[in-house]
Structure formats: structure tokens, C-alpha cells
Specification:
Strand order of the largest sheet: 4-5-6-7-8-9-10-11
Radius of gyration: 21 Å
Largest sheet: 8 strands, parallel, barrel
Number of strands: 11
Strand content: 5-15%
Distance between the termini: 33 Å
Number of helices: 14
Oligomer: single chain
Structural class: alpha/beta
Length: about 400
């Protein structure tokens, strides 16, 4: 027996044997319709409409769930913002709960890939996203970043990025995943539009690259740019994306965070994609450890966690999620040697993966090879690995004792 199930964006998906539940919609014409088996273990796409021509009418905010915590008290925020530097330096945060307003996160976020079909235009493959979300949940992941570097956000149109965000917003709401939306890598008007949209669909946080053409030369330049992004989404925590190897912007993050305090009310921290851990440590300690610093480099997790990092946005949480989780747990338990052994195993796999191409196409292929989720090829101008390169990668990876074919 098969039953029809609609996935209507930003409404509640319910799959139950023997019963079809009519879903209330919010006016969005986009939907995916599946047939579900009686035991609920299989889904088959039978109809879809991805035409996204309408004005969104969505909730303006949703609560943060899972292990990510956010307290929102404008009174406490105002108290902090009105302090001068001396008052902030001497303020004992244990005296009241103002520190809860300074948004702090702890956890592991997977920067998800955007699935594309293997057709001439590399069209979006949204049908696989429910399975992708369930795969991450089953593997203990509690947060995702969409449209980032791995997600190829910079080679997508604004409307495509919005559509992907809307589908993930629905799935994250159902699965209690923290949703971080990357809005950068495009002209400033588009950045602001994407930031507004992310807040409108209830994203838990926003990540943003620096301006990539008129690059900020000073911390003050970067602060001015991020102030504009913050104003576009004034109720959503903002994180700066520090990835100098891609952006070409290499301002010292410890100096930036010490300088920025009070200038951008929604700034909650950074994604630190660098292996310069002394700089990362300075960022952690900035402003009396006010900000969250997400580690973005998979190869130095053990060392970073030992220094005090508590959070990461790591690509390998997609296809090898157990390693990032095991490394952080070993550090918490004081098992430094075991953490380093796990890191060495992960780095052995990454060495094989990286030698077959640039980071995004090689890790995306590894996702296809090592997980049950086929996220498809990369989109131009990113070169997809050839079938021969993929086969060689697969043979080398499965030769590792800790990876099963």
C-alpha cells in the first residue's frame, strides 16, 4: 500500500501509514510530493513544483533548539552596549545574567553541500534534501550551514539560494537542527537581500564573507561592511566568515574582535577557517571570551579543541562525521593521545581526498563515495572530478583500515 505525502515548504511534514493528512500552506506554491510505503521506510518522488514566484509570508523568527542556546533580552543588550570600555573590562558577568545575551554557541555544524543534478545546467536537486537532513540527524549533527563554500553559494543565483534556504528551513524546523545561512560572496545589495530573507524564514544565524572586490584593508573597513549586513537582519545573530585563503582578506581576528565590541549589536562571533591557531586563540580570548569562534579547518581540530575551541563548522562532518565528534569528546574527557590518533586518521583520509582536486569538488566526491547521499557534481566554474579520479579516490579511501566500503 502506498500513500501520498506532500512536503509543503515551511509547513509541517507528517508521514503516517494508512492516513493522508492535508497540510495547511502559507501560500508558497513550491512543493515536493512523495509516495510513502506502509512501513514508512521508503519515499518516492511523484510530483514537484519548484516555481518560486511569490511574496513570502513566513514567521519572522523561530526559537533556537537543540544544544545551541540563545537568550534574547534587549534590556540586557542595551545595558552592555551603553557601557564604556573600562566598565566592560571590569564588569563581573557572574553578577547577573547579562552574559546570556551575548550569544554563545557550542556544537558542531555541518556545512552542507548543495545537491545538483548531472544535467547540462547542473539544476538544483532538492528532492534529496529530506534524506540528507535525516542522514545528518542520524549521525548526531545538530546544526547546518547552507550556501557556504562547500555549498557553492557563490555559483548560485539569489533566487536559488533563497529556495535552498526555504527548503532547509522547513527540514531544520522538523529535525530541530540549528540553521545558519551564508549570505556573502555576492554584490552588497544581494548580500542585504539574502540577509533579510534569512531572517524572514527564521534562520537561527547568518554567516557573511567580507566584500570580495573592494576588500576591507582595515578592521574599521570590515566593521562598516558588517554593520550594513547587521542592519538588514537586526534580530538574527551574525557571524563573520574568516577564510583568507579564499577571500584574500587576512585581518587579524583577535584584533578585529577586540575592536568591534559594541559596534555591531548582532555580531556573535566568527567562523575561523585558518590553521594559524595562535590567531584563533587570540580570537577566543577577545573581549573576555565574549564571542563564539567556530573552527573551520578539519586538519587541526585536536589542537584547536585542546586550546579551548568548543565549536566547529567542518566539512568532514558531512561524510566522516564520527571523527569530529570523537575528537571533541576525547578532548573533553582529557584523552589527548586518543584525540590525536583520531585526528591522524582523519588527516590520512583528507590527504587522499585533497590530492584529487580542489577542496570543494574533491570533498563533494568523497561525500558521494562515503555516504548514502549523492549530492551530485559541482557547478561551473568548479571542475568536477572525472570518473577515473573518483574511482582512484574510492580505491585509496577504502584501503584505509578505518573506512569500510
Amino acid at each position: 500500500m502506498m500513500i501520498d505525502v506532500d512536503l509543503v515548504l515551511l509547513d509541517c511534514l507528517v508521514i503516517e501509514p494508512f492516513r493522508y493528512r492535508s497540510l495547511k500552506t502559507n501560500g508558497c506554491p513550491v512543493f515536493l510530493r512523495f509516495k510513502a510505503s506502509e512501513d514508512g521506510e521508503a519515499l518516492q518522488l511523484v510530483a514537484k513544483n519548484l516555481n518560486h514566484n511569490h511574496e513570502l509570508k513566513l514567521p519572522t523568527k523561530k526559537k533556537v533548539t537543540s544544544e545551541f542556546e540563545l537568550s534574547e533580552s534587549e534590556t540586557k543588550r542595551s545595558k552592555w552596549e551603553n557601557m564604556n570600555d573600562t566598565e566592560r573590562d571590569t564588569y563581573d558577568q557572574d553578577d547577573d545574567d547579562l552574559k546570556e545575551e551575548i550569544v554563545k554557541y557550542e556544537g558542531l555544524i555541518a556545512p552542507v553541500y548543495t545537491p545538483f543534478n548531472n544535467d547540462p545546467t547542473r539544476s538544483l536537486n532538492l528532492e534529496i534534501l529530506p534524506s540528507y537532513a535525516q542522514y545528518l540527524i542520524d549521525n548526531g549533527i545538530t546544526g547546518i550551514l547552507i550556501n557556504g563554500t562547500a555549498g557553492e553559494g557563490t555559483v548560485m543565483t539569489v533566487e536559488e539560494r533563497k529556495l535552498v534556504a526555504e527548503v532547509w528551513a522547513q527540514l531544520c524546523s522538523q529535525g530541530q537542527l540549528h540553521l545558519m545561512v551564508h549570505v556573502g560572496g555576492v554584490p552588497l545589495p544581494d548580500v542585504l537581500e539574502l540577509a533579510q530573507h534569512a531572517e524572514h524564514i527564521g534562520a537561527n544565524s547568518i554567516l557573511c564573507l567580507p566584500e570580495l572586490f573592494h576588500k576591507p584593508a582595515t578592521c574599521d573597513d570590515l566593521i562598516r561592511y558588517l554593520q550594513l549586513v547587521s542592519q538588514a537582519a537586526p534580530n538574527t545573530p551574525l557571524f563573520y566568515y574568516h577564510i583568507p585563503s579564499y577571500s584574500g582578506v587576512n585581518l587579524h581576528m583577535g584584533e578585529f574582535l577586540n575592536k568591534v565590541q559594541g559596534s555591531i549589536p548582532t555580531l556573535s562571533g566568527i567562523k575561523f577557517t585558518s590553521t594559524v591557531l595562535d590567531e584563533g586563540y587570540a580570537a577566543l580570548k577577545a573581549c573576555n571570551e565574549r564571542f563564539t569562534v567556530f573552527l573551520g579547518s578539519d586538519t587541526v581540530m585536536a589542537g584547536a579543541y585542546a586550546l579551548g575551541f568548543e565549536s566547529a563548522i567542518a566539512t568532514t562532518l558531512n561524510m566522516l562525521p564520527q571523527f569530529g565528534q570523537q575528537i571533541v569528546q576525547c578532548i573533553k574527557d582529557g584523552n589527548i593521545k586518543e584525540a590525536q590518533e583520531k585526528q591522524n586518521d582523519l588527516n590520512s583520509a583528507l590527504e587522499i581526498i585533497a590530492k584529487h582536486g580542489a577542496w570543494v569538488p574533491s570533498t563533494k566526491m568523497a561525500m558521494n563515495l562515503l555516504s548514502p547521499i549523492d549530492v551530485g557534481p559541482t557547478r561551473e566554474p568548479i571542475k568536477t572530478l572525472t570518473a577515473e579520479e573518483a574511482k582512484q579516490m574510492e580505491n585509496e579511501l577504502t584501503s584505509l583500515s578505518f573506512i569500510t566500503s
